[in-house]
Description:
- The protein is mostly beta strands.
- It folds into 3 domains: 132 residues, Immunoglobulins (Immunoglobulin-like); 99 residues, Immunoglobulin-like (Sandwich); 98 residues, Immunoglobulins (Immunoglobulin-like, Sandwich).
- It contains 1 helix and 27 strands.
- β17 and β18 form a beta hairpin.
- The relative contact order is 0.10.
Amino acid sequence: MSGRRNLARVTGLILVAIAISGGCEESDVLAPKDSTMTLTAYPNSLDFPEGTTELSVTLTAQVLASGGFPQQGVAVRFTSTAGDLDSGGEAIKTDWNSVAQDVLTVYPEDPTTIDVTATSGTLSKTVTISKSGGGVVPTDGAITASADPASIVIDGAAGRTSGTSEITAVLKTKAGAAVPLARVDFTPSAKVDPSFDRTDTAGAATTTLTVEITDPVSVDVTAQASTLSDTVTVTKSVSSAPPGTVIQPGANPTNIIIGVGQTSGTSQISATVRTSLAGDPIPGITVTFTTSAGTLSAQNATTGNDGKATTTLTLRTTDVGGATVTMKVVPESISTFTVVGLAAP
């Protein structure tokens, strides 16, 4: 009888091997019901020394058939509650020794315990990895962001088309102690480099914000560590226009009609500053307006995010012939004008 049982067991293993070799390309081969699994993590305890930004843990799952026979080609999937798995959640097949291995990368900001689970069919095993050292962001802590300089001035005439500001985020506990090795993410990621940094012994993480001449007049940078965040605003101005800049004039209305019984009328004068005739608007540059007749509500105005600066022209009935309004930016060679007429009602 025992010989028949052994023959049946061997036959079963051969069938499993045939199934594995014949079907692994189409679908994962999972462990049979009577299999057993063990899961280990080495090391299973991590201590982050100062300056270390990541540590690795080797995960080993072994799947054995009933009676301890090896099973090669069985698909095992690893999942974790934190960190990054080399497998990315894809199945790993056991080798000739019935072993499937994955590597978990753990970061300082990850929680103090991480659960890793290996599954194959109905089999499932979980191991817990403990972590100590810096990088854990306190939920009741605080992060403070600052910028140096807080205001960027771009001199386009000197060939400069952008400016920079250093952004610093300081992370502290509720008691005011610095939190080292914590990850701080900065946004907008397209405007900062690097997009994240780890706090030093003073709890500070830094990045560099780059603002282009065509960017808005202010940029908000947010520093975030876990659930904690703070935002700092960096303003931008343009002291002079780059070569090729054009000013597109406008007046609304182009003819001021002074009604019966009225002594004056108004027109909104606009100047849109662009890098070229069909180029992007330049926010944050000062436009100087002058008029040959009448009065202006403002002789200097700064362009908004649409590149447009405005002022209001007032003409009286005595301003026969209307007015020519000139608009300039630095350097003064960049200028244009618009004519506003005075019409009878």
